[in-house]
Specification:
Length: 224
């Protein structure tokens, strides 16, 4: 199923124009439905452990294939991947830390965390990391977690933000503009008949990371 989606996306990358997309719209509709089913299956598997996802619908998590040309650096009319953000409080529109599934030829990945949080929320996250450093590091350095998600990802500023000691031992964690983790998957990964179960296990490993971040997010939302 996923290999068929990847093959379609490979063709879309070569033929990213409205004429080709229109003539292959039936294929797109079929693959989008397959992706929705994959995402809903992952939601159902994860929610056994992460109850925050109970009742979440794949339709609220999957991103549109159409590029918004007003704001996109790319002027191609269509994205060349399928993506879904699974988080309580609105799926792809949620402010909360959640699970991200991305299918793209030679760039399939699992991710999670807070991507481009609002400045006030980012400041709150930095404060909580600063005041609960040991807890945050313990999550990142847990052997099973670190084996799949070896480091934080995201843009970083060049120096420690104002308001924190310049000599803070773990200052690198305060320099992030976003707080994300990523696990890249080769296309051949999906030849494994048990890939859906394995992906769910990898997503569930993210749970302590989400709990830490969402404690901050939920308090920030209450105070807003």
């Amino acid at each position: 199923m996923i290999q068929d989606i990847i093959k379609y996306l490979q063709e879309l990358a070569v033929n990213n124009n409205r004429e080709w997309f229109k003539s292959n719209k039936t294929r797109f509709d079929a693959h989008k439905q397959e992706f929705l089913e994959i995402v809903q299956d992952q939601i159902n598997r994860i929610s056994v452990v992460d109850r925050d996802l109970e009742g979440l619908r794949a339709e609220d998590c999957v991103f549109r294939i159409y590029n918004d040309l007003r704001f996109s650096h790319s002027k191609l009319p269509y994205k060349q991947h399928f993506g879904a953000y699974m988080a309580a409080g609105g799926g792809r529109k949620s402010f909360r830390s959640g699970y991200y599934l991305h299918l793209e030829p030679d760039n399939c990945l699992l991710s999670g965390g807070l991507w481009r949080p609002e400045p006030k929320l980012r400041k709150r996250v930095r404060d909580d990391i600063y005041h609960h450093t040991d807890e945050f590091i313990a999550i990142l350095e847990a052997p099973e977690f670190k084996a799949i998600y070896p480091q934080l990802d995201g843009e970083m500023i060049s120096r420690v933000p104002l308001g924190y000691p310049a000599d803070y031992e773990h200052a690198q964690y305060l320099r992030y503009q976003e707080y994300c983790i990523t696990c890249h998957l080769p296309d051949g990964y999906f030849d494994n008949p048990d890939w859906a179960n394995d992906i769910a296990k990898r997503f569930i490993l993210q749970l302590p990371f989400h709990h830490f971040l969402n404690t901050t997010v939920d308090q920030w939302m209450e105070d807003a």
